[in-house]
């Protein structure tokens, strides 16, 4: 459906369906346990709920859980460092994208986002209620260095404001109008999703949509939202499209406000209004 699929950080249901019998392709369902157990899940999937890979000591920011804690989660799920992980949820991939970002940050080389979600998969393929037998592993995380990581902090974002960087706010309109970083453009993360298929829009359509907002591969891009969940989805999509100069403001607006960073407010004309 989208030509960027399968050779990138995003994979199609067809790609995954043809690899369900591969023991090195591990499916991670990030929904709540009641959904995993009660509604069903993809065959062979293990459940690592979204709340388990957030920093529980900092609920408002929803930050990374720490390398050791994340390694324990993957080890308990029976995942090895050289496995191909495919993550999914039932919310267009936004929670699963956060898992993808987290796994990449802690050095897992091959982690993908399923294009679509549980409901999209269920339109064409079978699901199951059987929980797989899992043998735990000793998983060791290998966090990216600051030079390798896309994550940036307050000072780096403040410096980006002085350059020609595009600050991209992935939140809803009312949030954007209440407070936003100076000069930010609003690009709701859900704009890339086809409501009917629940999958990503075609590549050419995505590129045109992003270009309308000034989000182009030749620009330095800084993503933020409130607690770094929604920008995870946009980050994965931009990565799949081949964008290379993309920064991920982990603290997002919550940290920015805590540091008394300058903000703007009120309505602003956007591409979708024209």
How is this structure best described in words?
Helix 4 (94-105) crosses helix 9. The chain has helices at 13-17, 33-38, 67-76, 94-105, 118-122, 154-161, 173-178, 203-212, 230-240, 252-258; strands at residues 10-11, 25-29, 46-47, 84-88, 111-114, 151-152, 166-169, 185-186, 221-224, 246-249. It contains 10 helices and 10 strands. The chain is of the alpha/beta class and 274 residues long. Helix 7 (173-178) links the parallel strand 7 and strand 8. The strands form 2 sheets. Strands 1-5-4-2-3 form a 5-stranded parallel beta sheet. Strands 6-10-9-7-8 form a 5-stranded parallel beta sheet. The protein has 2 domains: 10-122, Rhodanese-like domain (Oxidized Rhodanese, domain 1, 3-Layer(aba) Sandwich), CATH 3.40.250.10; 151-269, Rhodanese-like domain (Oxidized Rhodanese, domain 1, 3-Layer(aba) Sandwich), CATH 3.40.250. Residues 21-130, 161-265 form the Rhodanese domain. This is Thiosulfate/3-mercaptopyruvate sulfurtransferase. InterPro entries: Rhodanese-like_dom, Rhodanese-like_dom_sf, Thiosulfate_sulfurtransferase. GO terms for molecular function: transferase activity.
